[in-house]
Design brief:
By secondary structure, the chain is mainly alpha-helical. It has twelve helices and two strands. The longest helix is centred in the last third of the chain and has 57 residues. The radius of gyration is 28 Å and the shape is elongated.
Length: 347
C-alpha cells in the first residue's frame, strides 16, 4: 500500500512530463502540420495545381496588360511553352538523378552488405532478448512491441517506487510514468493497422517523444541518487534501455521511408513529365489566339486553355515540392537521435 504524497513537500515547478505528440511539441497550427506531413502527397499536389491555375487565370485577367491581345502576335505562347519544355526535361532528369544518387548508398560490395546484415541481426537479437519473443518483421508491429516494452517497464518503475520515502521522488515518478504510459497508449493505437509504404507508421513513431523520456530517467537517477536503492536503480535503468531501443528503430524506419518516398517521387515525376512535355509541345505548335475564341464568365477562353496547359507542365515540380516538403520537415524534426532538444517550443 503506497503512502500518500505530502504535497507541501513537493516542488511542482519541476517539468517532469512534456508535450508528447509532434503537434503538441511543434507549437504550430494543425493545418500547417497536416499539409506538410499528414496529407496525402497526391492530394497536396492537386491542391497546389488548382491554386496555381486559379492564381494564373485571375492574374492575367485582372492585371494589365490583358492576355488575349498579347497572344495575337503568336510569340507569347511559343516563348512560354518552349521554355517549359526545357525546364521539364532538365528538371526531371536532375531530380531523378539526385534520387538515384541518394539511393546508391544502399549499393555496395558483398563485404559491406554482410556487415549491414550483421548489424541489423545483432540489433534484432538484442531486441528479441528484451522483448522476450522473436522480433516482428512488420515495421509497425516491431515499433509497437518496443513501445509495449517501455510501457511495461514504466509501470514497473511506478509500482517499484510507490513506497519510496521521498515525497518529491514519488510525485516526480508518478507524473513521469503517467506521461510515458499515456504516450505509449496513444502511439500504439496510431500504429495499429498502419502499413509501411504510407506515412502512417513514421508519423506515429514521431509522436513518441523518447528522447525527453530518456533525459528524465537520467535526471531522476542523478537528482535522487541518495533516495534510490539498488532495485530502484535497476528498474530505472531497464526503462532507459527500453526507451533507448526505440531511437534506432525509429531512425531505421525513417531511413527506409525516405528511400521509399524518393523512389515513388522519381516514378511519379517521370509519369507526369511525359504528358507535361506533350502538352507543352502541342501549345507551341498548334495553339494561337484564335484557337479557342469567345469567353466564359467574362474571361477569355484562351486564358483558361493557357492556364490549364501551364499548370499541367508544372505538375512534375509540384510533385517534387509536395514530397520534399514532407521529407525535409521530418528530417529537420529528427536531427538528434539522442536526448538533445533542438526546438525552442520543447524547452
Amino acid at each position: 500500500m503506497s503512502a500518500d504524497i505530502d504535497e507541501s513537500n513537493v516542488d511542482e515547478d519541476i517539468d517532469v512530463s512534456t508535450s508528447n505528440t509532434m503537434r503538441e511539441r511543434a507549437g504550430e497550427s494543425r493545418l500547417k502540420l497536416w499539409l506538410l506531413l499528414g496529407a496525402n502527397r497526391l492530394v497536396v499536389t492537386g491542391v497546389l495545381a488548382c491554386a496555381l491555375f486559379v492564381v494564373f487565370v485571375a492574374g492575367v485577367t485582372l492585371l494589365p496588360p490583358p492576355l488575349a491581345p498579347q497572344l495575337e502576335s503568336g510569340d507569347t505562347i511559343e516563348t512560354m511553352f518552349s521554355t517549359m519544355i526545357s525546364v521539364v526535361a532538365t528538371g526531371t532528369t536532375l531530380v531523378v538523378t539526385i534520387s538515384q544518387l541518394v539511393l546508391s548508398q544502399e549499393n555496395g560490395p558483398l563485404g559491406e552488405q554482410r556487415a549491414r546484415m550483421e548489424d541489423s541481426m545483432d540489433y534484432r537479437d538484442y531486441a528479441e532478448e528484451m522483448i522476450g519473443s522473436p522480433s516482428p518483421a512488420d515495421p509497425s508491429t516491431f515499433l509497437r512491441r518496443l513501445i509495449d516494452l517501455s510501457q511495461e517497464r514504466a509501470e514497473a518503475v511506478r509500482d517499484g517506487l510507490d513506497d519510496i520515502d521521498s515525497d518529491q521522488l514519488r510525485w516526480e515518478t508518478k507524473e513521469f510514468t503517467e506521461s510515458v504510459i499515456g504516450n505509449s497508449e496513444t502511439v500504439r493505437d496510431q500504429l495499429d493497422g498502419a502499413n509501411f509504404g504510407t506515412f502512417d507508421v513514421l508519423f506515429a513513431a514521431l509522436n513518441y517523444n523518447y528522447g525527453w523520456k530518456i533525459f528524465q530517467v537520467e535526471r531522476l537517477l542523478h537528482d535522487h541518487e541518495e533516495d534510490l536503492g539498488s532495485p530502484e536503480n535497476e528498474l530505472l535503468n531497464e526503462l532507459k534501455d527500453a526507451l533507448s531501443m526505440f531511437g534506432p528503430a525509429r531512425e531505421h524506419v525513417k531511413t527506409l521511408y525516405f528511400e521509399w518516398a524518393l523512389v515513388t517521387l522519381s516514378q511519379l515525376i517521370l509519369y507526369a513529365a511525359i504528358p507535361a512535355l506533350a502538352v507543352a509541345g502541342i501549345m507551341v505548335t498548334t495553339v494561337d489566339a484564335g484557337t479557342l475564341p469567345g469567353s466564359t464568365f467574362g474571361i477569355a477562353n484562351i486564358t483558361f486553355l493557357v492556364g490549364a496547359a501551364f499548370t499541367v507542365t508544372l505538375v512534375p515540380f509540384l510533385l517534387f515540392a509536395s514530397y520534399i516538403s514532407r521529407v525535409a520537415t521530418v528530417a529537420k524534426r529528427t536531427l538528434a537521435i539522442e536526448p538533445l532538444i533542438l526546438r525552442d517550443s520543447q524547452r
